[in-house]
């Protein structure tokens, strides 16, 4: 039986993934802010419509092969080569079809201006296919250092191109240029970091090995699209680029925060859970640690965002984006609920139950789609509210049925969220009370800074007084990961090397 990853290995993975997520998200946030000030909401709406389509097609290009490569205990070179060439063939076909059918796709959204945007962004499908397998190999090895460097370099280059194009009046094409340059440079950096090179061979037997698992993942990814993108799809369809622009900005902000906090730990969770899949007790302990740590970091962020949104949005993006404020406040609640489910997916994949997760996603996607269809008769804020309601209903279902099926102690798991949740509510009350007493006295910037400072002090002091062990464990993990360099003399291969120590 393979031993699990060491604490140091996990800490290094979290640290490098965090550096990529936090560095990349901060950089993306700065770039996005600059672009939002230079461009109008309708431009963002056009690219968001095209982005919804491209995100859907990416599911068919990747086909779940990347996750299957990470999850397999026994991985042979033929598995990797076969997955790569099938993904490349799918990307080529879908890119050509997207270019040819761009005008017809644009008609579905009653917006002909989106057709050329779809045509150009479809080229990113080829870059996505080129990157998928190397990324999976690095993730399997928990070698997040090259992934971090690649992400930061690509974000910086794409942002520089996008801002320059926006400044010189390229409008919507500045956002297209930003995304294409980002994807292209990320692909170049990734291939320079991975020693693996594909051989020209496709094995039917090895494809069958992968397809048994990956098709369930592809189904999950497809349903994820409908559960996470139904809102933007229907906002774009019902209210056009002018309605989708503010909605996409609000969604982008909460996604930035979610990915910055949950993303690094999720990146490490799947390979960690996969290596512990034969030891249920250790797996469950690792799950509790991941859930408590991510909730402790993410929930106060979303609680504070709800309070300071009226000052934050106009200060960062300008008065033309004020319609995004109520949508942002509602989606922050949705993001907090979503953070609670951050480890359900990697847990079920690691336990070899993609079919169960697929069934869950069917339910979630149906709930989300029905909720959005009902809410589209009103306005974008109503669609955001429907996302919160359907996620809350799905939360109850998840902890009542699927988690019991895979024999997870539900009360013990819910307990990990109790302290971060109550502490975040306390912080929210303190910040809301503070804002109500100073909002008419100070200008927006000073009001926001006082609220943020008050929230941080209240949250950290309460945490130290009540749960110093949790604060110290998070600080220890971050410190270990940041101060310990990942060995670079290890060659990334298709066969994982697992440290002797295990997660205690």
What does this protein structure show overall?
This protein has 504 residues and is mostly helical. The protein contains 19 helices and no strands. Residues 480-504 have low confidence and may be disordered.
Tell me the layout of helices and strands.
Blueprint: H1 7-38, H2 41-62, H3 65-71, H4 77-100, H5 102-108, H6 114-121, H7 124-140, H8 145-167, H9 172-193, H10 204-275, H11 280-317, H12 325-340, H13 344-350, H14 354-375, H15 380-400, H16 402-405, H17 410-438, H18 444-466, H19 468-483
Helix pairs in contact: 1-8, 1-10, 1-19, 2-4, 2-6, 2-7, 2-10, 3-7, 3-10, 4-6, 4-7, 4-10, 5-6, 7-9, 8-9, 10-11, 10-12, 10-13, 10-14, 10-15, 11-12, 11-17, 11-18, 12-15, 14-15, 17-18, 18-19
How many structural domains are formed by the residues? 1
Secondary-structure class: mainly alpha
Mean pLDDT: 80
Number of helical segments? 19
Please give the number of β-strands. 0
H and E string: HHHHHHHHHHHHHHHHHHH
Unreliable stretches covering 5 or more consecutive residues = 480-504
Instruction: Please report the distance between the alpha carbons of the first and last residues.
Output: 16 Å
- What gyration radius follows from the Cα positions, in whole Å? 22 Å
Tell me, what's the shape?
A: globular
- The share of residues in extended strands comes to under 5%
Q: What's the story with the biggest beta sheet?
A: none
Please bin the fraction of helical residues.
over 70%
């Amino acid at each position: 039986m393979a031993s699990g990853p060491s604490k140091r290995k996990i800490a290094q993975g979290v640290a490098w993934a965090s550096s990529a997520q936090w560095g990349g998200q901060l950089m993306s946030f700065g770039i996005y802010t600059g672009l939002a000030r230079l461009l109008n909401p309708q431009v963002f709406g056009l690219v968001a419509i095209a982005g919804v389509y491209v995100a859907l097609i990416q599911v068919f290009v990747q086909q779940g092969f990347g996750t299957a490569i990470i999850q397999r205990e026994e991985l042979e070179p033929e598995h990797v080569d076969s997955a790569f060439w099938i993904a490349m063939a799918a990307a080529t076909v879908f890119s050509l079809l997207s270019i040819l059918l761009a005008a017809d796709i644009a008609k579905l959204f009653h917006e002909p201006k989106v057709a050329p945007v779809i045509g150009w962004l479809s080229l990113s499908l080829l870059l996505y296919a080129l990157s998928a397998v190397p990324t999976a190999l690095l993730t399997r090895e928990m070698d997040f250092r090259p992934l971090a460097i690649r992400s930061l370099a690509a974000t910086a280059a794409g942002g520089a191109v996008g801002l320059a194009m926006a400044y010189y009046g390229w409008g919507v094409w500045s956002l297209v240029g930003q995304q294409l340059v980002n994807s292209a440079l990320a692909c170049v950096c990734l291939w320079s970091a991975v020693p693996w090179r594909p051989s020209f061979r496709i094995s039917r037997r090895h494809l069958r090995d992968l397809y048994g698992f990956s098709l369930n993942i592809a189904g999950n990814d497809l349903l994820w699209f409908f559960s996470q993108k139904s809102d933007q799809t229907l906002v774009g369809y019902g209210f056009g680029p002018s309605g989708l622009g503010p909605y996409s900005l609000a969604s982008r902000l909460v996604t930035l925060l979610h990915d910055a906090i949950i993303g690094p730990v999720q990146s490490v969770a799947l390979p960690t859970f996969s290596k512990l899949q034969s030891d249920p007790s250790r797996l469950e302990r690792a799950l509790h640690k991941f859930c408590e740590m991510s909730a402790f970091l993410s929930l106060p962020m979303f609680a504070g965002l709800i309070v300071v949104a009226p000052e934050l949005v106009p200060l960062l993006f300008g008065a033309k984006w004020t319609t995004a404020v109520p949508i942002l406040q509602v989606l922050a609640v949705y993001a907090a609920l979503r953070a609670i489910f951050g480890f359900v997916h990697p847990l079920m994949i690691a336990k070899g139950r993609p079919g169960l997760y697929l069934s869950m996603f069917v339910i979630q996607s149906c709930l989300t789609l029905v909720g959005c269809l009902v809410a589209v008769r009103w306005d974008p804020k109503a669609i955001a509210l429907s996302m919160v309601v359907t996620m809350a209903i799905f939360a109850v279902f998840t902890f009542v049925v699927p988690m019991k099926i895979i024999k997870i102690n539900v009360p013990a798991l819910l307990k990990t969220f109790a302290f971060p949740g109550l502490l975040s509510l306390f912080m929210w009350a303190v910040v809301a009370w503070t804002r109500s007493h100073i909002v008419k006295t100070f200008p927006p910037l000073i009001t926001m800074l006082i609220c943020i400072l008050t929230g941080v002090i209240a949250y950290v002091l309460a945490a130290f007084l009540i749960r110093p062990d949790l604060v110290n464990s998070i600080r220890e993990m971050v410190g270990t990961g940041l101060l310990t360099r990942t060995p670079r003399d290890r060659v990334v291969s298709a066969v994982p090397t697992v440290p002797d120590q295990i997660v205690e």
